[in-house]
Amino acid sequence: LLPSLYLSHTVSAVEVNTPEEIFVENGTDAKLPCTFTSVEVISSAASVSWSFQPEGAATRISFFYYFNGKPYPGKDIPFKDRITWAGDLNKKDASISISNMQFRDNGTYICDVKNPPDIVVKPGEIRVRVVEKGICP
C-alpha cells in the first residue's frame, strides 16, 4: 500500500464553472455566468479577470478586471462602455453583463478567478453565439 503522504501536500484550487455555450439575440443584453468554488475565505486579494477570443482569432483580449470591490473595464476594447459587473464574490459569483450584443461579439469568453492562496486550475470558457432576433434556440 502507498502511504497517504500525498494527500497532505495537495494545494487547494479555485474551480471556475461556466456554461459551455450561450446564445444571445443581436442587440440584447447578455449575462455571462461565472461561478467558482474555493475552500479559502474570499479575501480582499481575490480578483476576477475576463478576456475574449474573437471567433477565428489566435489571441485573447483582456477586457475586464475586478479587484478589491471595484470593476475595472478596459478602455480600448470592443466592449467599451457596455460591461457591468453582475457578480458578488462573497456569493462566489464572478458574472458580468454585456449590453447591446453584436455579431462581432461572437467568440470565447474566459473567466479567471484568483483567491490567494488558492490557485486556479483552469479558467472557465463560454462560447457566445450572437444570433438574429427571433432565432434563439
From TrEMBL:
Transmembrane segments: none annotated. Residues 3-127 form the Ig-like domain. One of its GO terms (cellular component) is cell surface. The keyword Glycosyltransferase does not apply. Keywords: Disulfide bond, Glycoprotein, Immunoglobulin domain, Membrane, Signal, Transmembrane, Transmembrane helix. It comes from the Eukaryota. It is a single-pass type I membrane protein. InterPro entries: Ig-like_dom, Ig-like_dom_sf, Ig-like_fold, Ig_sub, Ig_V-set, Myelin_P0-rel. It is found in: Membrane. Gene3D superfamilies: Immunoglobulins. Its main location: membrane. PANTHER family: MYELIN P0 RELATED, MYELIN PROTEIN ZERO-LIKE PROTEIN 1. Belongs to the myelin P0 protein family. This is MPZL1 protein. It comes from Galbula dea. The lineage of its organism: Eukaryota, Metazoa, Chordata, Craniata, Vertebrata.
